[in-house]
Amino acid sequence: MTRHVLVTGANRGIGRAIAESFVAAGFTVSSIHRSGELPEGVDGAIADITDTDAVNAAFDALEERHGRVEVLVANAGITRDGLLMRMSDEDFETVLDTNLTGTFRCVRRATQSMVRQRFGRIVLVGSVVGLMGNPGQVNYSASKSALVGMARSITREVGARGITANVIAPGFITTDMTDDLGADLVKQYEANIPAKRFGSTDDVAAAALYLASDGAGYVSGAVIPVDGGLGMGH
C-alpha cells in the first residue's frame, strides 16, 4: 500500500510539479483545489481553504477513497501585493486567511489522521520573502514567515507521534507568474541570486519528496531553502 499524499493547490505552478513528482514516485496523490485541471493520476476535491467545513468535507471524501492522509504538502496560497501605506485591511486579511489560516485548517485536519497512525509528514510551502522580506509584500511575507513558527510548534506538540513538520522556502521559481515579469526585471532579480538563475518547480518538488521520505524522519522544524542562495543568512 502506497502512502496517501495530499497536495493543496495542485492544479498549477509549484503545487502541480510537486503532485506530479509524487505520482511519478509511486505515491497515491490527491489535492484540495479551487479550480482548474489536476495532473494525470491526481484525485481532487474542490474546496476553498478559507472555509473550515469545506476543508473537513474534502479531507473526509479523499480519505474515504484513499485512506488516511499520511503526507500533507500545504502549498495553496495567494498574493495581494501593494505598498504598506496603501494596503487595505481586506488585502492584508485575505492573504493571511488563505496562506496562514488556510494552511492551519488543513494541518489541523491532517494531524487528526496522522496522530491515529503515529506517522505523518507535514510540508509547508513558505517563501524566501518570509525570511528576508520584500517591499510591497508585507501581507505575503508575514503569512509565509508565520509558517516557520507553525512548523516548529507542531514539531514540539506532536513530534513524539512520528510526525514531522518542515518548511520549504522557495526563492524565484520559473512559473506562469514569473513569465509575466519581463526580461529586464528577470535580469535584475537574477543579478541578486548567487546561482544567477531562477529555479524550476522540479527543484521545489525534489525538496518536498525528500521531506516526505523515510530518510527525513529525523528532520523536523527545519526551513529548507530552495533559492539559489538568495536568502543566505536569513
From TrEMBL:
Residues 3-171 form the Ketoreductase domain. It is an enzyme of class 1 (oxidoreductase). It comes from the Bacteria. GO terms for molecular function: 3-oxoacyl-[acyl-carrier-protein] reductase (NADPH) activity. Its EC number is 1.1.1.100. Belongs to the short-chain dehydrogenases/reductases (SDR) family. This is 3-oxoacyl-ACP reductase FabG. It comes from Demequina muriae. The gene is fabG.
